[in-house]
Design brief:
The protein is mostly beta strands. The chain has no helices and eleven strands.
Length: 106
């Protein structure tokens, strides 16, 4: 992998409280906007490989909309079962209203 940042989206595509699924050639990533802070995580829940998109976000954690597994958006750590395996998180920065992410996980 490269440590370069790629342009993922314009900030208008991910409003406050919003989520955006990115389908990249080798992986899928979910970008979340929490009060103007952007996070990028693996799109799929580690519990049952279902998408996290649409999951509720509270206290910097996302809850899988299917089975309730919960993950920290900052670290990818499992916060609530039924998941037991952490998910990857990716560095994000905003420059000139563009959300950029690095595909090297933290």
């Amino acid at each position: 992998m490269t440590s370069e940042f790629i342009i993922a989206a314009h900030i208008s595509e991910v409003p406050d409280g919003g989520q955006l699924r990115l389908e990249l050639p080798d992986q899928e990533v979910l970008i979340c906007n929490v009060s103007g802070e952007y996070f990028a995580i693996d799109y799929y829940c580690s519990h049952d490989a279902l998408g996290l998109e649409g999951g509720s976000i509270e206290n910097d954690c996302i809850t899988c909309p299917y089975h309730g597994a919960e993950f920290c958006l900052r670290s990818g750590k499992v916060m609530a079962s039924p998941a037991w395996e952490d998910i990857r998180v990716y560095p994000v920065k905003v420059e000139d209203d563009l959300i950029k992410l690095c595909l090297d996980p933290v």
